[in-house]
Specification:
36 helices, single chain, three-stranded antiparallel β-sheet
Length: about 800
């Protein structure tokens, strides 16, 4: 402890006049927890005041209930009245949290326990600096321990590599080296120096000052209400601001607000500083091991910590990652190296930094970038821990949470820890797997952090529709539990809540002016179908039918038809599923109305111009996909009649080609007639070769085989370009390239062979042409040829350009 200058940084932690005992701590510090336990036993306070949101105080009794296994967290959900701030506020508690130890000791001693910080949803508490929106909102933040001029100077003076290693070396590794008075005097001096080096403007901006005003106010109230010693336990950074009795102690505005607070399970992965958590120490699994050794009854427990961790890590590797496992002699070397490093650094025992250094020097021989070796990554994960806390049956939780956990377990999903797991589901051949899939889809809607589909068939648009398997990853986490609490008012089962959410989304569409968006409505219907929410079938289908009748945009309607057709196919594939049957009985009438609505609007395509033709062709492509079904679940005759009318209308050239292609695809005309119509359209555009290429593009967008399989169409195109000079060809080349982009390499070769044969070219000539790498090179060659032609003509060599007789 000699690195601290007591004369410069010492603060008075005991106020005899007011009978106050101040205990500066670092959140989740085993050393602070150990000495705090001894201190409270020694002073036997009448009241224990803890830095914690006052609105979480009712949860203290629940926190001490039998069967509660930390890590757990007190959480506050956002209030509907809050503006501009979403997210749940978390106050995590683990076994080695000084706050948890203080609550346990105070209860054993019969002392009053109070939280003295601002309410968890107070604006000053929410002035966080999260790197990502998915990080939790935390009322405790300790980044000041890791950076700043004082921390840098101390690291330079002591040789520790960073602020975390500095704290470990000064306090955690010396937890057994002093009594509680000396320990907290050193922590207080350290924190006082940190505070003195801080920017006052920054403290005002991040909410520190109003929080401390709240704490001083609560201390004054406790003094007035209680006799006897009062223990005040706060983050060490706040302690210096609370000691002065003459500092203003007026309570900030909004300090009495209540919140929707609950106790939920938490896990070490979420608690880890390395994952963006803003307080405490990294690798909580390691510090829980430290805590267990500190409170152990075995006198040699502390000295065996290094061996326990490294031996356990080797056993873990042998079982889980055998490729990384190291030999027993290497293990012995690591233990010895860690101990020698501790002696060299003046520590009574190895800490976290010494363990990593010993692992790297003993088990990794090659040069590596810091933290980049898989063995170091595995050790980090091992020390992080994967334990998920637990709450006993009957805890004050909404029924939705326990019913969800019960259903998940009944489907074979493991909720014992927070490690992401993978599940393969045979969704069509195994009914239980289908039920699991629908549960996971429902959870994606209700509590999105729980599950993510990695791969599987796209059951809306048919991509990989032949896949029989789905792959999901899932993990129970605090975010899942908080999301379920937030949704608990919508129902007691996942599907009840999912139904309420989908109906609410339909209402949102109306508020957003999208009530008549048939495609969006069908997408919601598809979500309900995936999640097996049969209870919402009638309400959803009635709303979707209303959207179909009001929608005037063909592209949305035709896309909706594709979605609806896929839903119908899936319903027919699972006739015995009651949840699916609720949709299956109602879909035919809805698809009938949708098909007739599309038929009503198809004649409007005659008014489409070149600026809007892309959307019109996308409509026809979607219609082609839907009508490709040999037994479509909707009437096709109204659509065929409308398409017949379009074939006789005057259309944009590109749309003309697409309509011909669609007519052939749905057998309204055969391929021979389609070729004749296309040849005629190309011939009619002889004076406008650009229109001819656009006609060809329309065909290629829907049915390129019509062009490839009909030599008369290829001949018509060849004749067209035969009448165009080189410059005209260059001008048309970009359009032509885009049109032919729809062809496969085999189809391109087939067209090339037909054209080459028509011009008397041999297979060798064709092979030579195929060596031209791309259209850009061809264009460059043609431009060079044209410049040479012009130059020869200027030089009187025009005769050279004539073919030999």
């Amino acid at each position: 402890m000699s690195v601290l200058d007591p004369a410069a940084t010492a603060i008075r932690l005991f106020d005899a006049e007011r009978n106050l005992h101040f205990f500066p701590i670092r959140h989740h510090s085993p050393a602070c927890a150990l000495h705090l336990r001894e201190a409270l036993r020694a002073i036997r306070p009448s009241a224990v005041l803890i830095e914690g949101p006052v609105d979480f105080e009712p949860l203290i009794t629940e926190l001490l209930a039998p069967g509660v296994v930390p890590p757990v967290a007190m959480v506050a959900l956002p209030d509907a009245a809050e503006k501009g701030r979403s997210g749940t506020t978390y106050y995590p508690i683990c076994q080695h949290s000084p706050e948890f130890v203080a609550i346990q000791q105070a209860t054993d001693l019969g002392a009053i326990v109070r939280f003295i910080d601002l309410p968890s949803r107070h604006p000053a508490m929410l002035s966080d600096r999260r790197d990502r929106q998915d990080q939790p909102l935390l009322p405790m933040r300790e980044t000041m321990f890791d950076r700043g001029a004082y921390v840098e100077a101390m690291c330079a003076r002591t040789g520790f590599r960073d602020g975390l290693a500095l704290w470990d070396g000064l306090f955690e590794a010396r937890a057994r080296g002093t009594d509680w008075r000396g320990f907290f005097a050193s922590v207080g001096a350290y924190c006082s120096a940190l505070r003195a080096a801080s920017d006052p403007d920054e403290l005002e901006a991040d909410g520190t000052l109003p929080r401390e005003a709240m704490m001083r106010s609560c201390i004054q109230e406790a003094i007035a209400a209680r006799s006897g010693p009062i223990a005040i336990i706060t983050g060490g950074f706040h302690t210096p601001a609370l000691i002065d009795a003459h500092t203003d102690a007026s309570r900030p505005a909004g300090a009495t607000a209540r919140s929707n607070a609950w106790l939920v399970r938490y896990d070490f992965r979420a608690l880890d500083r390395l994952n963006g958590y803003g307080a405490g120490l990294p690798l909580p699994g390691f510090y829980e091991r430290v805590w267990q050794h500190l409170i152990g009854t075995d006198d040699d427990a502390a000295s065996s910590l290094t061996e326990d961790i490294l031996v356990g890590f080797r056993a873990h590797l042998i079982e889980k990652e055998p490729a990384l496992a190291f030999s027993f002699p290497t293990l012995q070397s690591m233990v010895e190296t860690a101990r020698r490093l501790a002696v060299l650094r003046g520590l009574s025992e190895p800490g976290r930094t010494e363990l990593f250094d010993a692992l790297q020097s003993s088990a990794i021989k090659q040069e590596i970038e810091v933290g980049a070796h898989p063995l170091l990554a595995a050790f980090t994960t091992y020390l992080q821990g994967d334990r998920l806390g637990d709450l006993p049956p009957g805890s004050r939780l909404p029924p939705l949470i326990e019913r969800t956990r019960s259903e998940a377990r009944s489907l074979g999903l493991s909720l014992d820890d927070a490690i992401p797991k993978t599940r393969e589901l045979d969704i069509y051949r195994k009914p239980r797997h289908g039920q699991t899939s629908r549960f996971l889809y429902a959870m994606r809607l209700v509590a999105p952090p729980f599950a993510e589909r990695v791969k599987g068939p796209d059951r809306v648009y048919g991509f990989r529709a032949d896949m029989l398997m789905e792959t999901w990853t899932y993990a129970w986490s605090p975010a899942v539990e908080a999301a379920l609490i937030e949704r608990a008012g919508d129902g007691e089962t996942v599907r009840d809540v999912a139904a309420a959410l989908l109906i609410r989304r339909l209402e949102d569409l109306e508020q957003e002016g999208q009530r008549n968006n048939a495609e969006a409505a069908f997408n919601l219907l598809s979500i309900a179908f995936d999640a097996g929410i049969g209870s919402a079938a009638e309400t959803l289908i009635a709303a979707v039918s209303e959207a179909v009748g009001a929608d005037t945009q063909l592209l949305r309607l035709t896309n909706a038809l594709v979605i609806g057709q896929a839903l119908n196919s899936r319903a027919r594939a699972m006739p015995s599923d009651a949840a699916i049957k609720a949709f299956a009985d109602l879909l035919p009438a809805l698809l009938d109305r949708l098909a007739r609505r599309i038929a009503e609007l198809l004649p409007d395509l005659a008014a489409v111009n070149a600026d809007n033709v892309g959307g019109a062709i996308a409509c026809l492509a979607a219609l082609a996909e839907a009508m490709a079904d040999p037994d479509p679940p909707f009437p096709t005759q109204p659509l065929r009649d409308a398409l017949q009318g379009l074939m006789s209308a005057q259309l944009d050239p590109q749309l003309t080609g697409a309509v011909i292609a669609l007519a052939a695809l749905v057998s309204l005309i055969d391929e021979a007639e389609a070729g004749q119509r296309l040849s005629a359209a190309l011939a009619g555009a002889f004076e406008r070769p650009g229109d001819a290429i656009r006609t060809l593009s329309g065909v290629m967008a829907l049915a390129p085989q019509l062009f490839v399989n009909d030599s008369s169409v290829i001949t018509a195109i060849d004749d067209l370009f035969g009448a165009v000079d080189d410059q005209g060809f260059l001008d048309l080349l970009p359009q032509l390239r885009m049109a032919f982009a729809e062809l496969s390499p085999q189809e391109t070769d087939k067209v090339a062979a037909i054209v080459a044969a028509a011009h008397g070219a041999s297979e060798d000539d064709l092979a030579l042409l195929q060596r031209v790498p791309d259209a850009r090179v061809l264009a460059d060659h043609l431009m060079l040829s044209e410049r040479l032609r012009s130059q020869w003509q200027a030089d009187g060599l025009a005769a050279w350009l004539e073919p030999a007789p």
